[in-house]
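Backbone-to-sequence.
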């Protein structure tokens, strides 16, 4: 198993397939200085498979494909099909725009659960946040996934000025449909103009939901990053990913692989270790993986203060979220 110096076992790998995206979410893609990776620097389909295989031999049993927008990869179907041969639970995080195109392949590959990002239920506000006109396609994707019996989680990054007034509309979605809404606290990454004042915390969201609904706290599964709740009598659930106000590092089981083949042992790690370069040079990559895991820091890449309100985002050494792979 891939164990770090704090005894945390890692069995979950998130693989970014690209740093490109068809949306421009305000909190994710930097407005300036965004340099996309040249194709030659991206892991190719067979390289993704080879690297993933090595991780799986070390106990990884869940792989999430992400990005940028993973469905933009021209060879997405091939990558998916190859990875589906591995003994892992294979999942995807997508903005939903191209879901319809790949629905048959996702079913064929045995994908059961999909995280789909949607930050507003109002087409005009959706356009403001994503800088693109994609609301109808994304909304339709949710419907298609539910009809095809996927477990659908909706990722909503909550920000005071973007969508705070829509929280109750989002939780309402979970009443009549088997949808699992997940509110994510706004996190700082390179170029995303993070401000503490824009963060809406776990506690604030719960207080707001309680003004309208009676809710129950559900039991959270092991390694779960989201704190799960249910409105009484609802078909679905809602949850909060409280990375900023109540981080969950003690129980972390995640590793990340960037689209250019670097292992990041934490979403906030400054350090990255090149696996693809070593693989292309014919070197063993397992020792490099093990060393990177061992060096994982106890909490948030060792780059955050105890209280998130004291965070100075300019001091954090990291990439933009779009180039890490969320
Ligand atoms: N394009 C896909 C999507 O939007 O779902 C996958 C990649 S995206 C980087 C993965 C997730 O990270 C999305 O749910 C997105 O909302 C979230 N995310 C991006 N930037 C974030 C930030 N600054 N704080 C919190 N979540 C963020
Ligand atoms: Fe693209 Fe997803 Fe980032 Fe939005 S959150 S810009 S859809 S990668």
């Amino acid at each position: 198993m891939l164990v770090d110096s704090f005894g945390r076992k890692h069995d979950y790998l998130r693989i970014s397939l690209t740093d490109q995206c068809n949306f421009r979410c305000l909190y994710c893609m930097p407005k300036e200085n965004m340099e996309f990776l040249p194709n030659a620097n991206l892991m190719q389909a067979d390289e993704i498979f080879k690297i993933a295989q090595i991780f799986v031999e070390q106990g990884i049993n869940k792989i999430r494909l992400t990005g940028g927008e993973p469905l933009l990869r021209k060879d997405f179907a091939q990558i998916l099909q190859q990875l589906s041969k591995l003994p892992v639970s294979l999942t995807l995080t997508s903005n939903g725009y191209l879901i319809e195109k790949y629905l048959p392949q996702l079913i064929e590959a045995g994908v059961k659960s999909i995280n789909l990002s949607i930050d507003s239920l109002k087409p005009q506000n959706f356009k403001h946040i994503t800088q693109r006109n994609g609301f109808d396609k994304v909304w339709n994707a949710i419907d298609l996934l539910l009809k095809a019996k996927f477990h659908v989680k909706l990722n909503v990054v909550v920000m005071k000025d973007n969508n705070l007034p829509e929280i109750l509309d989002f939780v309402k979605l979970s009443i009549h449909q088997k949808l699992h809404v997940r509110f994510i606290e706004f996190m700082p990454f390179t170029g995303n103009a993070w401000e503490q004042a824009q963060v809406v915390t776990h506690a604030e969201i719960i207080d707001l939901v309680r003004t309208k609904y009676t809710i129950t706290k559900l039991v959270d599964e092991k390694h779960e990053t989201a704190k799960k709740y249910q409105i009484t009598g609802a078909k679905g659930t809602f949850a909060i990913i409280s990375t900023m106000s109540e981080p969950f590092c003690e129980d972390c089981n995640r590793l990340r692989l960037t689209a250019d083949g670097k292992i990041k042992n934490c979403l906030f790690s400054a350090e990255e270790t090149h696996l693809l370069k070593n693989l292309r040079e014919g070197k063993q990559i397992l020792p490099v993986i093990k060393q990177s895991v061992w060096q994982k820091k106890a909490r948030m890449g060792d780059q955050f203060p105890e209280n998130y309100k004291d965070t100075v985002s300019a001091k954090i050494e990291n990439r933009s979220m779009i180039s890490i792979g969320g």
